[in-house]
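Q: How would the structure tokens look for this protein?
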Amino acid sequence: MTTLPVSDTSTFETARSPRAQRATRFVRSRIGRAAIVGGPAALVLVFMLILRAASERERTAIALDAHAQHVRAETATFLAYLADAEAGQRGFLLTRRPVYLAPFVSGRPFLDSSLARIRQLTRENPSQQARLDTLTALARASVAFMDSTVEVRRNLGLDSAIARIETGRGRELTDDIRRTEQAISDEEARVLATRLAAADQDRRRTLLWLLLGTVAAIAAALFANLILADASDDEAKMRAAIAARMEKLERNQAMLRGALTAGQTGTWDWDLRENRITWSDVHEMMFGYKPGTFPGDPDAFLDKVHPDDRAALTSAMDRARDEHAEYAHEFRIEPTPGAIRWIVGRGSFFYDDTGRPYRAAGTVADITSRKVVTPEAAR
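A: Here is the predicted structure in token form.
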């Protein structure tokens, strides 16, 4: 940044208005810098909160629509069950064959369960509950009427059954049921329309806030650019600090690899999606492989495990995976035919957002020296 001579600076300051001088002092102050740098971040945070609230309202609107559709589907299911029962009744009245009564009899539990689901879905709406009370009473009356008509047909004959039907009571009950069902559906549609209108108003309000916020963010960003030149030195220092930390991290990793090799500790990584295992050189040599020759197949690992220990080892790993717990288990291996070594394996499983494991990683260490080395123990 070029520095003006003292005389030029004095002239420049004198030519500026008091308001501009106060603005300059504010920009150069610590509080001013913090406000300029932190302002865009604060605006982004506000945007995130606004978007989150809008997203919650959108999810609520979607849930309300799904709820209304669910209520309508249940009422339609109820009517379908009732229609099947009526069809079965008519078939029996015409033929007196018991086979037609199957849907008439089997549909009753479904009628009750459908009414129960509608009641549960509309439990927070007293007017819907009242309509459902009416619908339940009408359904029971309709079923009772059909029962009595079936009995008349069975005991008194077709003419008596037809005479009972011609009273119009069954049609009256059916019409009342359909009107009540339509009232329930209409109420759900009315409530949904009211809430969706409110959600739409919220969307417009959110868009307005986002528009205003975007303008404010652009203005804040342009204003913040006034101090970017002064921030270049800090950026250079940060890069130097990162480079130093990376160098230190590489040294630490090299020391860790050396420590693992010296301590006869191997590392492993299991890609569960690809069912592929990667071993360190120490791990491979521990299990009798030359470095870089382990095929990565889980079966190739189990082939090296003592036959008597395979089931327990597999069970321990499955249990750790299912319980989201750390895996730790001691077992024997045969790196070469007839050579028995004791190994302790440790590790952890990693899971995706759905809780499904996709990776496992850990270590193995040779603990043969800690075991009582006898022919029986080795076996």
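Residues 15-262 form one domain.

The radius of gyration is 39 Å.

Upvote if useful.
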